[in-house]
Amino acid sequence: MVEIIEPHGGTVFDPACGSGGMFVQSADFIARHRQELEAQGQDTSVYVYGQEKQGETVKLWINLFATSLKATGRAALVMANSASDARHGEADCRRTLIEKNLIYGMLTLPSNMFYTVTLPATLWFFDKAKRDARILFIDARNIFTQIDRAHRELTEEQVQNIAIISRLHKGRRGEFLALIDRYFASGMERLADNRQQVEPVSAQLLAVLEDEAGKAAVASLVKAWDGLEALQLAYAAYQRHNGDQATVEDRNSAQRALRATFDPFFTALHDCLKQLDRAVRHQEKQVAEQAKADGRRGSPDRQTKALKTALEAIHAEVRSAESWFSHIHWLQERFPEARYEDVTGLCKLAELDEVKEQDYSLNPGRYVGVVIEEDGKTDQQFIEAILDFNAQIKALSDSAKRLEQIVLHNVQLVVGEE
Prior knowledge:
Layout: H1 2-5, E1 11-14, H2 21-39, E2 47-50, H3 58-67, E3 74-80, H4 89-99, E4 103-108, E5 121-127, E6 135-139, E7 145-148, E8 151-153, H5 156-169, H6 173-208, H7 212-225, H8 228-241, H9 248-293, H10 302-334, E9 347-350, H11 352-357, H12 365-368, H13 379-415
Parallel strand pairs: 1-2, 4-6
Antiparallel strand pairs: 3-5, 4-5, 6-9, 7-8
Helix pairs in contact: 3-4, 5-6, 6-7, 6-9, 6-10, 7-9, 8-9, 9-10
């Protein structure tokens, strides 16, 4: 909420302040943007006051926010999704707010974002100074990070990716490019750190892998990481030629071209890791079969465990670095011109007539539409994934059968039948 209403100057009022989270986040926002705001001549002093929520009805609660705004005031509140579509008095309340042009935007959150309730919620944004009669709808139900089976959260990057939609809508294209620049910088820093870990982990893998195919896969992985040097040179060239003097269009084109150079690099890394995964599973299978032939238990030996631990460490490092470039791809794919545009399944800038056609509903799902996204895999990649899963299931099934025989045998020994 804070990233979209962007509080600075004046008073922050929270009629349901609880532990003061809105105030803390507002202060943090000002601290992070103080230099930028003061350079623009904005007031960064803020006075806060709040009170505990006392149990108002939905209609009165929404009206409290709307009527508390000064002439240039902005507000945000959290409501259950049902309030966006509710009939009777709530519908009349929505109609009044819309016709008075107080609603800036609506944002639907994923479910399971709160510890006390599992139902999805919607964020309402008011702006009394808005001049455009259109309403920005954002459906963020598919943007989240799963914490455990019952809880989800938004990472800082996911929050920024959502907030930049509002800033693009306001015409602040430079902030979109600045966000992508920050992702590039973080990604390059992470890749450089990861590169330092490749040689020791590769040496550990070579010390444990026994077949030539596995050792060749390690060599291919090291060679793939050597491609980082060319990417570092490309990134340095981008920085030299795309400073503050470059136009938005030129910087955007340069960013898109730079991001595309990373695709072959990560593809090569993933191909090498797949080869290593297969080599590890093959060795694990051989060890289990040898143990069975020798009459020993078929659980993984110490070497195999060390091998899998080292391989998982490489997987984690690659995922960590790639995540920054995934955020860049996500943004550039949806806003290729570095300007706001309606994106099916994500955001829609709805005209007043469109809202009237929906009986003044403020449910983003009614406006943004639905998109069925592909998983990005080719037919061959899909087949390989199925075969990998099948091999894992077979290995687990064989292990379960061996354990079953061991348990049955031990029971017979205990009861004296053998």
